[in-house]
Amino acid sequence: MKTQxxxxxxxxxxxxxxxxxxxxxxLLPLFLNFIYQLLELKxxxxxxxxxxxxxxxVLLLLFCSITIGQGLRLSHHDFSxxxxxxxxxxxxxxxxxxxxxxxxxxxxxxxxxxxxxxxxYTSPTLDGVLGQPLGKSKLCLSCHDGTVAVDNHSGxxxxxxxxxxxxxxxxxxxxxxxxVIYDSALADVDGYLHDPSSTSSGLGNTIEVDLxxxxxLECTSCxxxxxxxxxxxxxxxxxxxxxxxxxxxxxSLWKSNDGSALCLTCHKK
Length: 269
Ligand code: HEC
Ligand code: HEC
Ligand code: HEC
Ligand code: HEC
Ligand code: HEC
Hints:
By secondary structure, the chain is mainly alpha-helical. The protein is built from 9 helices and 4 strands; from the N terminus they run αααααβααβαββα. α3 packs antiparallel against α4 (about 50-65).
């Protein structure tokens, strides 16, 4: 666990910049609050034997006492504290000029694109036809298949920081199908799917408009890469329990999946 934590800290280099730049006198009240929480935590540690959750909790308290995040800030997509990002938020993924056009319709892309060949999901009941990952999914997989370094951006290709827990590998047979056309015709054939062109996504428009890319379901149909739902940084997703334990609920989804709400947006089961 320790090495994993340090891996995260190294990838994002969070600890370093937070302390160096944000820890000014004006944050003193927050710091005192942190000390208070730490003392509280100490008494919990004596009760709680899990070192894993303790180290985790200490780290989270430290971060959230120092600064409050919003959206990307203090998420796992916040690379601004890493030296290789030029301390910028957007640069590892976007550039205003000389963008990478390998993936059609990509938003001014600045990260090296994966060239892996993927194994795709199959099942006897699958009605859609799955080719290789396309569009936005390919952009995600350019870090999340574990073959391209996270710091390979702006033309740099010798990076050394790779995804850790978020490595979903090039084997997508055990992952929800992606890059599949999801239209009224598929919904007709399947019978267990809502019609995307007429069903509300619950986010303001239809499934087709809010969640699909050129009628295709992609990683971005479920995930918001800019994590706009999060207004609290680390503790938005890692919720510290009264007893000192912790639960993780990712706000990187477009909507909460409580009661499988996300799944039931498209599925009629
Ligand atoms: C980890 C990579 C990553 C980072 C960091 C990132 N983006 Fe994005 N961005 C993406 C991906 C992938 C898409 C396409 C997915 C989508 O449209 O939902 C995208 C889409 C966009 C779009 C076009 C679609 C839209 O949502 O309007 C804009 C504009 C954008 N990003 C701006 C930014 C800005 C500004 C920053 C920095 C504050 C930023 N992004 C940081 C990956 C990233
Ligand atoms: C520039 C590299 C990069 C790109 C591009 C990228 N990610 Fe990530 N993502 C990371 C890293 C690094 C982590 C931290 C976890 C780790 O180290 O394994 C992460 C974590 C996550 C997490 C887990 C934490 C959370 O917020 O729930 C999700 C989900 C995620 N990414 C989804 C996506 C999706 C979807 C896309 C494409 C729209 C994407 N990522 C694009 C690098 C990237
Ligand atoms: C059908 C919806 C759906 C699609 C499509 C989808 N995901 Fe996810 N993903 C989820 C849900 C739900 C979770 C669990 C979130 C949580 O823990 O709260 C998740 C979790 C993750 C995590 C965190 C992994 C961890 O260890 O907890 C990563 C990284 C991730 N997804 C990346 C991706 C990438 C990359 C793609 C595209 C190749 C993708 N997802 C496509 C729904 C989806
Ligand atoms: C948008 C949601 C989100 C935010 C914000 C977030 N995390 Fe996470 N984090 C996750 C998810 C999802 C996982 C994977 C949990 C799992 O698989 O059990 C995770 C895992 C971790 C892990 C364990 C990594 C491992 O290798 O097992 C650490 C440490 C961590 N987060 C620290 C942080 C810190 C520090 C912050 C604030 C800078 C933060 N997280 C912000 C969603 C988030
Ligand atoms: C944006 C719409 C959407 C969301 C959200 C979504 N799915 Fe799907 N799901 C689909 C589509 C489209 C297919 C492909 C169906 C087909 O081709 O037969 C699919 C396929 C599947 C399959 C495989 C079906 C088979 O016949 O092999 C399962 C299982 C599944 N989804 C479960 C889930 C779960 C669990 C969630 C929530 C975490 C979820 N889905 C969220 C649209 C969605």
